[in-house]
Write a structure and sequence with these properties.
Strand content: 15-25%
Radius of gyration: 58 Å
Number of helices: 4
CATH superfamily of one domain: Glucose Permease (Domain IIA)
Order of helices and strands: HEEEEEEEEEEHHH
CATH architecture of one domain: Distorted Sandwich
Shape: rod-shaped
Helix content: 10-25%
Number of strands: 10
Distance between the termini: 208 Å
Length: 246
């Protein structure tokens, strides 16, 4: 009986430890405050306050209507911070401090208890923004020294949505064939090399005579004055004179 009792106690202690782990504060879930892409990731060296460090991540708003609480907890700060603009800080039950900066109009106040995914602000940006598009900067601190940690180590991995397969392009209607017209006959090389015949100068119309020049018709009706013609005219004139004398 003694052995049976001593064996029962370790089993009970182990079961209590498992239950304590199940309800531990570390089981609090985290969610993305915006649905846009990560514009800049976490980058931190040995000195968290050295120049060029990035103690959080920048998330694009991507058209979201509201910025959401990344985790459940109490709002310990809600107001404006120099260079960071409108800021909300949420402290979770397990000691994480999540600060969201470059917000728009705040929808919560200090002392409010929010749940994961609760709208806490309108899109910004405010303060000295690094981007012209709306975005939110998420920084998370933990522990007594408030050491910064990479928010991507707490946020759930995003599921890649499969884009719908585009519908196939409609088949274009067949274009009716065009009826070919008569092919123009090109001249043969031999015909192209022969020059066109010149008009016969004898068949060409004579140019119109000017107003003062005698017509060609009258010139051709009068016989030319040859020596024989002159002799004939003198003979004809003498004969006419002799006939007249009687």
């Amino acid at each position: 009986m003694l052995t049976h009792r001593t064996t029962r106690y370790p089993v009970a202690v182990l079961a209590a430890a498992i239950c304590a782990l199940a309800v531990a504060p570390g089981a609090i879930a985290w969610a993305w405050p915006a649905d846009g892409p990560v514009l800049r990731e976490f980058s931190l060296g040995d000195d968290p306050y050295a120049a060029g460090q990035h103690r959080g991540i920048d998330i694009g708003i991507a058209g979201a209507r509201k910025v959401r609480a990344p985790s459940s907890g109490e709002v310990t700060f809600a107001g404006s911070v120099p260079t960071h603009g409108w800021t909300v800080t949420i402290v979770t039950p397990d000691g994480y401090k999540a600060s969201l900066t470059h917000l728009g109009t705040l929808l919560v106040h200090k002392g409010d208890n929010v749940k994961e995914g609760t709208p806490i602000a309108d899109p910004g940006p405010s303060g000295e923004a690094e981007y012209s598009t709306p975005y939110v900067h998420l920084g998370i601190r933990v522990g007594d020294g408030e050491s910064y940690i990479d928010p991507l180590s707490l946020l759930p991995p995003r599921t890649t949505s499969t884009a719908p397969t585009p519908a196939p392009a409609p088949t274009p209607a067949p274009v009716p064939a065009q009826v070919a017209g008569p092919t123009p006959t090109s001249p043969s090389p031999g015909a192209a090399s022969n020059p066109a015949p010149s008009p016969d100068p004898d068949l060409a119309p004579a140019p119109a005579p000017s107003a003062g020049a005698p017509s060609a018709r009258r010139r051709h009706l009068r016989p030319p004055r040859t020596p024989l013609r002159r002799e004939w005219r003198r003979h004809h004139r003498r004969s006419a004179i002799e006939r007249a004398r009687g």
